[in-house]
Every structure is written in structure tokens, then in C-alpha cells.
Amino acid sequence: MAAAGADMKPLQNAMKIAKVAIQLDAGNRHKEAYCEYLRSINFISHSLLEDAVSRQGEIVAVEVEKMLRLAEQCLERAKSSFIGRRDEPATPTSYTTPINLAALSLTTTLAVSPGKIVSPQPQEPVIYSGPKHNPRPGQRRVLSEGGGEVTTFLPPEVFQSLQIVESQDTRKELTPIEEASRLNQKLKENYEARLARLPPAQARTQKTSLTLSLQRQMMENLIIAKARQDALQRKMEERRLRLQEEANRRFAASGTITAEEQEQRVLYTNVLEYEQDHDWPKLWKANIKKNPDDATLVSGLVSCLLSCPDHPVMMLLKRLQYRVYNRLYPIVSKSLPASPALPMKPSHSAQSLLMSDSHQNASKSEVGHSMSSDASLNISFSHDHIAEDGDGPHTLDRENSFEDLEQFLTQLDWAPSHGDPDVTFEQSQLDQEESLVQDLEMRDLKEHLKAIVKDIHIAIDQLLSLCLLSFECLNTASSKDLCVASIEEAFFTPLWSSLLALFRKVHRERELCFESSMRLYRDALPGDVGVASKLYPQDPVVLHGSYPYDSAVQELRLLCRDCCPQRKLECIVRTLRLICACAEDYSCLHEAESKTAAIGADDLLPILSYVALRCELPQLVSECAALEEFIHEGYLIGEEGYCLTSMQSALQYVESLHTGGFQLHNTKFT
Amino acid sequence: MAAGGGAGNKTYSFKVVLLGEGCVGKTSLVLRYCENKFNDKHITTLQASFLTKKLNITGKRVNLAIWDTAGQERFHALGPIYYRDSNGAILVYDITDEDSFQKVKNWVKELRKMLGNEICLCIVGNKVDLEKERHVSVEEAEGYAESVGAKHYHTSAKLNKGIEELFLDLCKRMMETAQAEERAKGNGASQSTTSRRGVQIVDDDPQAATAAGGCCSSA
């Protein structure tokens, strides 16, 4: 063999082995074929390695390439014949045809497997626990909303693949080559069916001719498809150039072009291209032009746009969203924010006992201690979380729980420093260092937060301008507002939980203060926080077993359920309106002074503070801080702005309560 | 954007913050202002805490947003977030209560410190119907107002005296300030978004003008 191969080129040698393998394969001798394929690969890699190491360069580049391709194909065939051997040893598999090497190379190099991108789909219900689908709404108590979901952030890659899955909903047209490969698949199936039907004696004689004709047909299909594809590509290229010119004309060239302008041109070209392929933008535009005053048309267009994942606006949205998430993920997934303890949660009583204990220790001891007790807090939380997830139908996938475990272990490392509080000197030194580290970390976090907020503002602006560029008809004051609202909702919804996690990290101290006040004033009456006595009923019978301003409290609790700033803002406005309505009702009960029904800020703020206390959601502090960043300028001066400002003031006041800034009247406790 | 600042088809949006101690009657004052002869259903869903009013002053549309603040001492620390971006402030005291006038002085100091000279200040002595019990002298109050660049007014919410004048005057002053700012920026082409202090000068939008509800309008 070695002598015979000496005067042959390695490529030919390799092909010879492969040919033998294919023949064996055709003769249903899978096992031997399998070995022969491997031998061919082995030979190729051996001779290429020798050539590469010796640096003599006997094999020319073209041949190296060919050999590599051959090895690849052999590997494919080996794989399939191995599978064929294992799965269905009796029936011939679809790979038993002796196809010559050229045909083989054409099919494997040209056929695109369309299923590849879609693969993450079946995983979706398992991993995705983000806010959009809200997979376990039943399990979430309002109180647990803050702490329960801290560990569930998806790695950015998964986040992105989910974005893609969402955009795969619409059926894409097949390219000519995809079409051809489907056709060939069918031909092959027919061929196999035909062979199987033939009696064995006939099969042997007819097989060759059938095989040959199949090969010819498949080759033809592919060659035609390739030609069509090329033509199509050329045409697309031409069109793109033409549209690019159109885009350039639209943005009157003014000397030098900045990078942003360049980007905008590219995006606009994409829009033009999209509009050539799709009719709906034209139809909507014409419709709006015909009925310019119809507001429902505008909202129809916007929601239509949002439901088209392949429109450039939506593509840009996904890209920007991913960019933000990519920045958020490393921060929010690194170490868990110490979520405030939830002592009222009944189902985890033992753990919550532990949590509130360790928490009280923290607030009693010096400030430096808080870090280490946080660690223990976190541990109980990740326990909590894993347990909760295990119960439900949505178990975490392996990787995630592994990550959790990792986090869990790193937190355990902190535990010893907390476990022995009696070791005083070293402990305090450690604490000092810790608090220094903490300070630095906090400064870093704040910087990150600022940068991300800025990024988001830029992203929204960019999206809006592309949106208005695509649909000039939306460029009126009211349509623009609608556009922004819709874009923001689409943009923020999948991001909010991770964004909020960052805000919660930054505002942790404030949340802890809020929580202390909350615990201290759990059973307080409105009067205890300064609500005028005429503004709540003294007689508990009137309240039917509830507490004053119950409806406003319930409304405010819903705030955490929304995932977009605008909706949250609306929730705050509704809460304040409910407060005013309740106050009016209550003051009517004191008929003596029914004249002064309208309440001003003097009355509103104490009531709002009471409602915030009753709400028992420390994360409100972070939610409102985030809203502050993302509230729309147009709303700042109006009712929404006023309500948010009042909410912020009330929260700040509640935070200050536990330091004794305001006296608690114990006598009024029930 | 229409060329030339001050053209007729613009709407000014102003934020006015209402400051004053608990019992000086600032809520009644503002309620009095917003309840008018054309419209008895005057109160917004937020009642007297937040009120809006549309005005037409010398052919220009003005939207007023009046922000009430809590007068109690324990909420004072929260003042700044209320009055940031305000165009005007109405500081109310009770002429029968010397203490409430001292409070006004504190607020003036703070506002000037935080917002500079661009905010229009109005110092208002309320309850002039109780003239007999006056504890803050007219000379002292007006002298002080002048010394800090504020204007002084006397009102009675009970008798509905001096309130309309107070707001009209304030609006005119805020418009002047806004126009001066516009000119300073050059040709008034700056969009509302770039305006530091939240003066919103928007192109007239007929839809918004008709659709806006919950507030009263006066000519």
C-alpha cells in the first residue's frame, strides 16, 4: 500500500480510500464503511500534518483545501453511517446511496440547514423566566416580588437567542438553494421508496441506473438553484446600491459625515429595502394620508410596526436592547443584591425568621457589619429561590442552577467572617476593609448606572428618529407621543427586571431604611403618620374589616407588575387619585366639615406616606428612582410629574421614620 | 418651528409651586383661582394638590401647572424636588401670623439659592379680611419683598380678593422671563427639550388644545 501510494498524490490517495468507503456504504456494510471513512480522515490528517510540520510545502494550497473538505465530508458520512448502524441496523438509511464525490461536495457545501437558527425554541419555556411571559404569576406573592427573582437573569447569549426566536415567528421565504435542497430530499426519498419496492433480483440490476439518474437530477437542481441564487444576489446588490444613493440624497450631504450620520444612512437604506419587499408600510402610509385625523390609524400602524420583527426599526430595537442587557448582565448577575427580608411571608417562616434575625443584628451592630450579614442573607435567599423553582413546573436548566451553586459557594466564603462575631479586633479590621471595598463598589455601580441610563436615552432617541424617518406621517406631536410610548414599552419590557436590579443595588441603603420603618409601623394608623383625623374613619366598622385607604394600597402594589416606565407612572397617578377619592368619601363621614372636601398637599403627603408604608414594598424606592430617570420630559410638569414627585417625597419621609424623626404614638396601637 | 419668537401660535407651559405653612390658606387660595364662573366642576382628580389652568394672555396661550406643597415642617426636607424646574413660586403667609411670614423668608432664601434669579417670586399676604388682627405690617412685608426681588400681593381667599390679579401678574412676568431667555438663546429656535428650566414652548397642536380636559379655561 505504501509503495503503491508513493507515486500518488495524497489527495488521490485519500479519495481512493473514501471511494472504497462509499462502496462499502452502498453495499450496506456500514461497519466497514465507517472504518474506511475514519481511515480516510486519518490519512488526510496525517499527511497534512506531515506536510505542515516539515514545511516543505509539497501539497499546494488548493489541494490542502480540497483535502480538508474531503475530510469534513468523510466525517459527516462516518457520523451518519455510525448512526445508521446504531439506530436501524436492518433497514437501509438514507445515506446508503453511492453518490460520487463531486455531488457529495455540492450538497454538503451548498445546502443551508434552515433549522439551525430555530434550535433554541424548544428551550424557551424552560429557561425563560423574564417578566414578559411571567411564567409563574401564581407563585409570586406581592411581597416576594422584590427578592424572589434576583438570580434568574439569563446570560446575554440566551437573551439574544430569545430575541431571535421571537422574530422567527413569521415564515421566511426560502432561497433558491434551500428550495432545491428540499426538492432533492424528496427525490431521494422517492428513489429509496422505489428501490425498496423492487424485488431483490431486479433491484441489483436497476440500482445503478436509478442511482445515476438520481445523481444527475440532484446535480441539475443544485446547479440551477445556484445560478438563480447568484442572479438574485446580483439584483439585490444593485438594488441596495440604488437605495443607498436614494438615502444619501435624502440626507443632504453637508461636507463631512459623522459616524452617526453614516449609521443613519445605512439604517435608512435598510428601511427602503424593506419597503421594496413589503407592501404594508405603503398601504398604511396611503391610508393615513387619506385620513390624517384618524388617531386609531396611527396606533394601528405603530402596533403593526412593532409586530414586524424584521422591520429595520425592530431590528435596531433588538440590537440596542441586547447591548443594554449585555452591559447590565455582568453587574446584576455577579453578586446578588441583598434583598430586604420579607418577614411576612408565611410559607418560608423558618427562613424568614433567620433573615429578619440576621437583619436586625445588622441594623443594631455597627455599619461595617452589614456586608457580612448580607452574605448570609443572600444564602438564605438562594436557598429560597431554588426551593421555589424546584416546586414549580419551571425547573431551572442545569447551567443556571450550576451558576446558582457557584454563587452560593462564593457567598459561603463570606460566611465565616460573620459566623464568629466575637473575634473582635480582626473582625473590625476586616469590616473596615470591607466597607472600603463596598464604598468603591458603590461608586462603580453608580457610574455604571449613569452610563446605562444614558445609553438607554440615546437608544430611545435613535429608535424614535428611525421610526419617524420610516414613517414621516408619524411626525406630529400626538403621533410622536404614541410612538415613543410604544417604543419604550417594547424596549423596556424585557429589560426592566435587570435594570431594576441595578437600581436596587445602588439604592440598597434606602431600601433598608424603608424596610425598618415598614416593620416599625406595620400596625400604625393613618393618624400615626400625621393624617388629619377627619380624613380617615375612626370607627373600624365602616371599613368592613379592612384598613383605611386599602384600595390605594392595592393599586400601588400593582406598580411592580408593570414593566415599562409609562405604565408604572400611570399606576402612581391612579394611586393618588384613589387617595383623593377615598379622602373625599371619608371626610363625608364627618358631615360636620363636609364643606372643605378638596384636599391639598398638606393632607395628601401624610396619606401617601401611610399608603406607601402599608404597601410593604421596599423596592418602591428603587422603582421610583428608576422612573425619575425615564419619565418623559413632557410629563414632568404635568399630573404625572406631580404624582411621581409626591411619591418620592412620601418615600423619603417613610425612610426617615425609623430614625425617630417622627414620634410614634403607642397609645393608638390596636 | 415657526420663525420669529413670540408669534401667536405658541403655547407656554409654566410650572408654579405653591409654598406656605400649614394654615395660611394656600389651598383655598388656589381653589378660589381655579373655580370660575364658567365652570363649576373645577377640581381635577387630584383635587387641590395639583391644578392646571389654561389662559390666554395678550394673544398667547399659557398653560399653568400649579403644584401645591406640604407645609408641615417634617416634609420640608423634600422641598427641592418639588420646586426644581419651576418658573414661578407663590409664597403664602397669613397676615395674622408673624411666624408664617418668617417661614416665607426661609423659603425665599432657599429658592434663590437653588434656582437663582430666574424664578419669579410672589409673596402673598393672605386673609386680608382679618385686617384687624394683622401681625405683619404692610411696610415690612413689601419692603422685604422688594429687597429680594419679589413682588408682594394682598389676597383674601374668603372674599376672593386679589387672587386673579396675582396670577395674571405672575403669568406676565414668567412670559417676560421666558421671552428674554429665548432671545438670549438667539432667534428662539431652541426646542423645549434644551430649555434648562422646563419652559415649554411648543408648536400649537390643535388636537391637544381641544382634547385637554380636567382644567378650566378663562379668556
UniProtKB/TrEMBL annotation, chain A:
Segment forming the signal sequence: none
From the UniProt record, give one GO term of the biological process aspect. Answer: vesicle-mediated transport
Q: Which residues form the VPS9 domain?
A: 508-663
Q: What does the record give under GO molecular function?
A: guanyl-nucleotide exchange factor activity; small GTPase binding
Q: Name one Pfam family in it.
A: VPS9
Database matches in Gene3D superfamilies: VPS9 domain
Ranges for region Disordered: 121-143, 339-370
Polar residues composition bias: residue spans: 348-370
- Which Gene Ontology cellular component annotation is one that this UniProt entry carries? cytosol
Q: Which PANTHER family does the UniProt entry name for this protein?
A: RAB GDP/GTP EXCHANGE FACTOR (PTHR23101), VPS9 DOMAIN-CONTAINING PROTEIN 1 (PTHR23101:SF98)
What is this protein called in UniProt?
A: VPS9 domain-containing protein 1-like
Organism this protein belongs to: Salmo salar (Atlantic salmon)
UniProtKB/TrEMBL annotation, chain B:
Q: Which GO terms describe its molecular function?
A: GTP binding; GTPase activity
Is the Magnesium keyword given for this protein? Answer: no
> Which Pfam families does the record associate with it?
Ras
Give me the stretches of Polar residues compositional bias: 188-197
Stated name of the protein: Ras-related protein Rab-21
One Gene Ontology cellular component annotation held by this UniProt entry: endoplasmic reticulum membrane
Q: Membrane-crossing residues?
A: none
Q: Where in the cell is it found?
A: Cleavage furrow; Endoplasmic reticulum membrane
- Encoding gene (name): LOC110511982
Q: How does it sit in the membrane?
A: Lipid-anchor
Question: Which keywords does this Swiss-Prot/TrEMBL entry list?
Answer: GTP-binding, Lipoprotein, Membrane, Nucleotide-binding, Prenylation, Protein transport, Transport
Sorted alphabetically, the Gene Ontology BP terms of this entry are: protein transport; Rab protein signal transduction
Q: Which InterPro entries match?
A: P-loop_NTPase, Rab21, Small_GTP-bd, Small_GTPase
Q: Where is this region: Disordered?
A: 181-203
Q: Which SUPFAM superfamilies match?
A: P-loop containing nucleoside triphosphate hydrolases
Similarity remark? Belongs to the small GTPase superfamily. Rab family.
